[in-house]
């Protein structure tokens, strides 16, 4: 999943630096992720993983880093399995 | 009997009422001459209203955003420029109060603001960023214990009259444009070279001239949190809510004038309903909508404050954007309605029903962070954020 997320960040994040230079836990906003690009990224993730972000996870924290995104997607997929 | 009277006299509302009286007296001159509302700001200092938001242990009165919005509205009814200076000062202060209490320097700074009634200005606008305050071109340079910053600040409201400026920049010279820091500079730590004069349609007394800012200060004066967080968690909400308080005040005064006009007409001919009476009923409806909107926004903010996740959620950002759009658009309709009621007496300057200043001041509301930009921001959030379908939630 980490690779898919990285590909999506590369495609939608419009970061001024290549994604391979961004560590898993590096702050994406500090790396130049704008609020508009973050929405594009969320849409891309929803599409790629066939999920929908619930409103309580639509905040800066959920998308602050690549590992945070992976964790957020995990959380949604897990809760779906339970349901 | 003395005791309750003393409490009333010392309440925030009573103190603001005394400031409003002074602000109202000078409002037309401030507007006409495009000068800083010095008398009103002196009165704010005398009534010790500049430090009220600061926590008690730092010498303030721990006033809430809701308390302050009420005062903004009272001052807005008297002189919109004075009210806007008061609002902008408290918006800056909210960044310090929400994000600076854990920092020794910023706590000491707040103590000074409360004790000396310092006026704080904001420098978030910069030539070349296209009005997006979440981007900076200039970068703060840290050299050992010292930080230096130079910024082409195209707008610093009441910059020449402030005792300190909170200024945004990139957090270091290699940082991305959205990786910003907020730094407090005291008056003796910067120079301002005026580059643009504020000669505007309305809000003339805010004296929001442009300046080339050059500052040098101890690096510990940089706020310890990224500006992105500060913007999302305190600035966005407090700006939209306190501005809306001011704008509501402009609308209230316009409606008061219209009502006085209709009542005078009704007294003159008690047998006939004055022609403006129906429009007055209409405008009172619009005014109530703005009020409900602002009050609901204040409640949402006070509720979200207890929960950091909620505060930085999209749902909350959409709600605050909507408060701003609705109040800034509706007050124009309200003042226009009031003008239709008062007719030529409202259109003329120097009558008890004059509304020219209100109309010009109200026009700034849609432009203070352009509504088009805010709608664009909301529309992108609505691509992923699902609306809350409950009435009360």
TrEMBL record, chain A:
<dbReference type="InterPro" id="IPR036736">
    <property type="entry name" value="ACP-like_sf"/>
</dbReference>
<dbReference type="InterPro" id="IPR009081">
    <property type="entry name" value="PP-bd_ACP"/>
</dbReference>
<protein>
    <submittedName>
        <fullName>Acyl carrier protein</fullName>
    </submittedName>
</protein>
<feature type="domain" description="Carrier">
    <location>
        <begin position="1"/>
        <end position="77"/>
    </location>
</feature>
<dbReference type="Pfam" id="PF00550">
    <property type="entry name" value="PP-binding"/>
</dbReference>
């Amino acid at each position: 999943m980490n690779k898919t997320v990285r590909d999506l960040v590369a495609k939608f994040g419009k970061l001024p630096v290549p994604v391979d230079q961004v560590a898993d836990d590096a702050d994406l906003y500090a790396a130049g992720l704008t609020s508009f690009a973050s929405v594009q990224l969320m849409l891309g993730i929803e599409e790629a993983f066939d999920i929908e972000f619930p409103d309580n996870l639509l905040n800066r924290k959920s998308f602050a880093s690549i590992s945070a995104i992976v964790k957020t997607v995990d959380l949604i997929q897990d809760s779906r399995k339970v349901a | 009997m003395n005791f309750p009277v003393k409490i009333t006299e010392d309440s925030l509302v009573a103190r603001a009422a005394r400031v409003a009286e002074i602000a109202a007296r000078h409002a037309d001159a401030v507007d006409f001459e495009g000068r800083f509302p010095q008398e009103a700001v002196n009165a704010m200092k005398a009534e010790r209203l500049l430090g009220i938001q600061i926590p008690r242990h730092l010498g303030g009165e721990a006033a809430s955003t809701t308390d302050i919005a009420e005062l903004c509205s009272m001052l807005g009814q008297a002189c919109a420029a004075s009210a806007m200076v008061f609002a902008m000062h408290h918006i800056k202060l909210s960044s310090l109060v929400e994000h600076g209490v854990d920092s020794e320097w910023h706590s000491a700074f707040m103590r000074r603001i409360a004790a000396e009634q310092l006026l704080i200005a904001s420098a978030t606008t910069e030539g070349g960023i296209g009005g997006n305050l979440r981007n900076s071109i200039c970068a703060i340079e840290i050299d050992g214990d010292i930080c230096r910053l130079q910024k082409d600040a195209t707008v610093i409201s009441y910059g020449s009259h402030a005792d300190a400026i909170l200024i945004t920049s990139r957090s270091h010279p290699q940082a991305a444009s959205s990786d910003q820091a907020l730094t407090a500079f005291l008056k003796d730590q910067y120079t301002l070279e005026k580059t643009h004069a504020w000669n505007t349609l309305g809000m003339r007394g805010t004296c929001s001239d442009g300046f080339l800012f050059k500052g040098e200060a101890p690096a510990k004066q940089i706020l310890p949190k990224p500006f992105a967080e500060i913007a999302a968690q305190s600035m966005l909400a407090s700006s939209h809510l306190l501005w809306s308080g001011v704008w509501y005040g402009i609308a209230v005064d316009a409606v008061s004038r219209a009502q006085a006009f209709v009542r005078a007409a009704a007294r003159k001919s008690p047998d006939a309903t004055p022609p403006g009476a129906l429009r007055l009923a209409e405008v009172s409806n619009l005014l109530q909508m703005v009020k409900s909107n602002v009050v609901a926004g204040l409640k949402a903010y006070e509720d979200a404050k207890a929960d950091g996740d909620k505060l930085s959620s999209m749902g909350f950002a959409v709600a605050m954007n909507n408060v701003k759009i609705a109040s800034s658009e509706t007050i124009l309709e309200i003042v226009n309605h009031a003008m239709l009621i008062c007719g030529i007496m409202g259109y003329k300057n120097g009558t008890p029903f004059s509304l020219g200043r209100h109309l010009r001041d109200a026009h700034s509301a849609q432009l203070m962070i352009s509504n088009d930009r805010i709608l664009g921001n909301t529309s992108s959030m609505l691509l992923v954020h699902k609306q809350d379908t409950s009435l009360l939630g």
